[in-house]
User: What shape does this take?
Amino acid sequence: MQALNNNALVAVIGAGAMGAGIAQVAAQAGHPVRLYDKRPGAAAQAIEGIGRQLSKRVEAGKLAASAYDACMTHLQPADELLALSDASLVIEAIVENLQVKRELFAQLEALCRPDCILASNTSSLSITSLAAGLQHPERMIGMHFFNPAPLMALVEIVCGLATDPELAASLHATARAWGKKPVFARSTPGFIVNRVARPFYTESLRLLQEGVADCATLDALLREAGGFRMGAFELTDLIGHDVNYAVTCSVFDAYYQDMRFQPSLIQKELVDAGRLGRKSGHGFYDYREGAERPQPASLSSTTQVESVVVEGQLGALSPLLDRLRDQGIAVLQRDGRGLLRVGDAVLALSDGRLASQRAFEEGLSNLILLDLALDYRSASRLGISWAAGTSQAAIDQAVGLLAAVGIRASALRDSPGLCVLRTVAMLANEGADALLQGVASAADIDLAMCAGVNYPRGPLAWADSLGIATVTTVLNNLQSTYGEERYRPSLQLRRQLADGSLFHE
Ligand code: NAI
Assistant: This one.
């Protein structure tokens, strides 16, 4: 399907943070752009702001002066809606209010050409219901950019019930021609990113609420073991708790209070207190002048380790063995059920059971569970927790082993699935459920999470590499340990487990 021609007029309505960014993207792609805002002068101001930003880039040698000129001549403010009547594409980025947006689209439908694409940048409203009052709901579509639009690659192309698939394909091609990474999504609450990302925040919030570790330690684990750019507390402090909490509440309500999306009381308390994060100077962390940033908790050990015994296959933990060998630690192999023995300690990757429960069920003493790492070859920190009754000597041996290969160990209170493993299992579960419900393809779900929120690996690709059986086992164990349906594995996982297929063949 063809992208819109470069000379097609693009109209952007709403000259706030998003509208200005979108107008800049379209103008830089070569389209004539008209920017309209109901507040007189706002569109012209926004264009001046774009000009200031871009001229700084020219001065820094990052943008050619000719590209600056081309972009600025393409951008024109519009004083009235009527000036948008010959647009081929209108992108609305006004206040997030269903009624106000509906009224605007009704006006646009009356004044724009019959083949004009009517797109909304809404992040939470249903495209189906935005289109409901229109004479031609088939030309209404979501074009969901991420903030800041000129920098973020992802665009969710969101189809409502009536959206014309050809129009969706054309807008997808257009977003690609604008240098973006578009994905298709069905209009369902949270589309892809705002739905699949929920567990990233809510699982850390739960771990904090249950006293498993402090914010700095949990954040460090998601960064240094999980490979995420930020942990959940530093990220929600950046996003703003009012915004992040509102998105969680809206997705929770939209899915009829499905407990998978249950908001956190700890986050609500921050919102109630006005501790909105960086923008208010205080969130989970204190950003006021002179405030000290808490450091993650790390265990230390002086125990020297010379050899380990591997019993059976370690699965996802296996790459750790290469790292041990590289440090001259002897690795002896024998049959068994996937355990790593060092002195008195028995180490294993968590399977979602409590360490104490697993130690009891498998008759193991000194059982120490390890958390998941994106790559055990390069992780610099790992979460560990141990069964009740584990000796201090065994803990020292485990910590000494990890220290020998440059991994800091952070102690987590015995909790199912530790931190990274449980977060990744729940992200994969949400991605799988979105796939099951036809929200998007597996490829688009993973692309959306990598391009939209910078995940180090798509959650479905992560499930493939970890093993769908492993992810399902972790979720089953979380579900039975908590006794909560929140952790129920998606039917999609169970299906794929039964037929042996991967998300990405
Ligand atoms: P904003 O508050 O910065 O800007 C909204 C602009 O729309 C204001 O300049 C306002 O004067 C104008 N406006 C309001 N009602 C209007 C009307 N009836 N006609 C014309 N102009 C009108 O808002 P922001 O953050 O730019 O968001 C706009 C839309 O983009 C919302 O739907 C929001 O959900 C969505 N969005 C926001 C993201 C963000 O991170 N801020 C990310 C992705 C989507």
